Amino acid sequence: MSAFGELRAQGYLGAECLALIFQFVREEVHRFPVLAPRSGWQDADLEDLCGEFLADRIQQATVMLLAQAGDEASLGRLLRKSIRHWLIDQARKTAVGALRRRLENVLAAEDAFEQVPAGDAGGGRWRLTSTSVPPWAGSTEDLVDAARAVPNVEIPKWLSTTRRGPVADRRSIVAVAAAVLNAAGGSLEVAQLVAVFVARFPVVLDDPVVCSLPDDLDNSVGLDEALTPEQQLVAADDEVEAAVTAAEVVGMLAPWERRIVPHLDNPLAIQTVLGCGRSQAYQHARRLKEKLTQLVGDSDSVRVVGLEVIRLCGGAAVAE
Amino acid sequence: MGDLGTPQRFLDLAKQSRGPQVLSEEGLRERFGELAEIEIDAGQVWRACWDEVSVLVLVLAVEDRDVLVAPVTIEPPAEDDRCMVLEGSFTAFGVAATVWAGLTCLVPIRVLDRPIDQWSEDLIRWTTHTAQGRPHPVPPGTRQGQPIQSELDPAALLQAELADDLESLSQAPGLPVDTPGSTPRDLASLLGTSLDLASLCSSLGLPQSEVMKLLRGKTPLTPDQVEVVARVTGLASEKIAGTVRRLPLGLVIQAEHPRWRPTWARRAQRLHISEDQARLTGSYGVFALAARETGGSESDWEQRLRQFLRGEKTGAGGA
Which of A29, A210, A249, A281 sits CB 3.0–4.6 Å from A267 for a disulfide? Predict the structure, then answer.
């Protein structure tokens, strides 16, 4: 009996449906290297992952399939989509956990911050050192605005090829946390700080698909003959730094993201490249622009880095 | 799992997670009656599907050939600030469901497949008002959706996928409908003196009687046939496609009603053609039958459809 026939006859997921779930989990999980165990995926790991999916989503998935699937093929497509989005959520959860640990480490190690003593109002929360402030209660959006107002935030080099990139360098994390606590005028739970950082750096939760750059990328730098030798030296150094930063940014993009970088203002071309619908093409463009904005940062060389990213991805880097 | 079979704990969990009985075939029949008897109405939640797309939609208004709908999702969970999230106890689903008022659009009635649920007036009102940009308090038992925080939020991708699905549904091929005042030239008059019947018959691989129907616009040209005729005659494909006589609105509305979808699907399977081709050729068969019997005047098209399809089964009909 087909999985669809089984579901219609029984009203719940039977052995055929469960086998499909296992197959789709096995196939889809390889899109999420951040979820992979250090020793790679074994059957037992995959079985555990299936168990987690079922524990989380089986009731909703069963109802959705009963209501929405019209045949075996649509059941398969809907089930795969459900599993893919669940895996995205799992990848984001691991990122939030990593972000929380990173924040706690920085807050504990920096003199600028201290924990409110137990027994005081808001005990265990974080505040700026030597301040006496009440527990904060306000709009998270105000704190996110304060975080966004911090200039020159830098994304550090990303050396791992399997793990998610760090949110920002230590200096930037300290600056953003201080700005947020200052704007709050009160003490904050770590979870509240995490929520602000997630809103400020959504890229940290993005699919951490890492790929290596081809060896033969042309990173040569042209020099302007009209500059003095000293100016040429400074310009060359700037351009080399921009090129290196751009290469690091490109390294953080998934292969499919690199393919659409040259077409960010041309959703029709993105549709062709990715074989997706119009709305998804627009969304991919907006999403990648936001990701690049986060990765490139807001330093003085942002424009040069941006153009270099486009060039490395195969596009014509036209200055506008 | 895998080679060792499905663990019993998974089978047990699945069995404990049985879907609501009202979503079974029997349950749906009890609630809505036979598909053939169903009238489409505001407040109904339908499964809409075409090709590789399958979406749940809440019907907000019904027109001749289209319905105004807002998509409904159950899984994966996602929402935006123009969504309403309903508690499980408020619907047949028994789990939370989300209606996306911001994605409200018209889709053709021909993509509706099966009614799944019936929602109350206050849910329709909220969705309609929100779709029109008129804020309205959410009804009891529901909450307004949370905004999408960033383009990197997975909900943004799900929203885009849903919008593309709706666009695919809206483009599902329909029947060519006659509009008052339009009288397309048939293929015979378009070709005029350059008509080479023998060449057409051989190029199309059809007997002369079938080619004559095509020439008179009494049977539709398939896209492949349009291309063949264009190649043989040297005329533009668009001109060739425009020669097919269009169908009366009354017949089109009947033939595109979801009550006929299972019939078209069975016909498609039997003739090894697509569902839209089965509906197109079947509808022209009905039209030709009606023209023979009544001279093309207004007919009871539902009765004509039944008569034609019955005749086709017994070998007495056919397009």
Answer: A281
Q: Is the pLDDT of residue A112 over 70?
A: yes
Residue B19 contacts residue A11 (beta carbons within 8 Å): yes
Q: Is A34 helix (H, G, I), strand (E, B) or coil?
A: helix
**What pLDDT digit, counting tens, does each position of B154-163 carry?**
899 999 999 9
Residues in chain A: 320
Cα A108–Cα A114–Cα A117 angle in degrees, nearest 5: 115
Q: How far is Cα A58 from Cα B95, in angstroms, rounded to an integer? A: 11
Q: Would you call A92 and B52 a contact, using CB atoms and an 8 Å cutoff?
A: no
Between the alpha carbon of residue B99 and those of residues B124, B129, B140, the distances in Å are: 10, 13, 15
State the smallest CA–CA distance between residue B212 and chain A in angstroms: 39
- Whether ipTM > 0.90 holds is no
Of the candidates A78, A13, A75, the one whose C-alpha atom is nearest the C-alpha of residue B18 is A13
* CA contacts within 13 A on the Cβ side of A282: 9
- The three-class DSSP label of residue B30 is helix
Q: Name the A residues in 283-302 with CB < 8 Å from any B CB.
A: 283-284, 286-287, 289-291
Nearest Cα neighbor of A69 from A14, A8, A148 is A8
Q: Nearest by CB to B160, which of A50, A64, A280?
A: A280
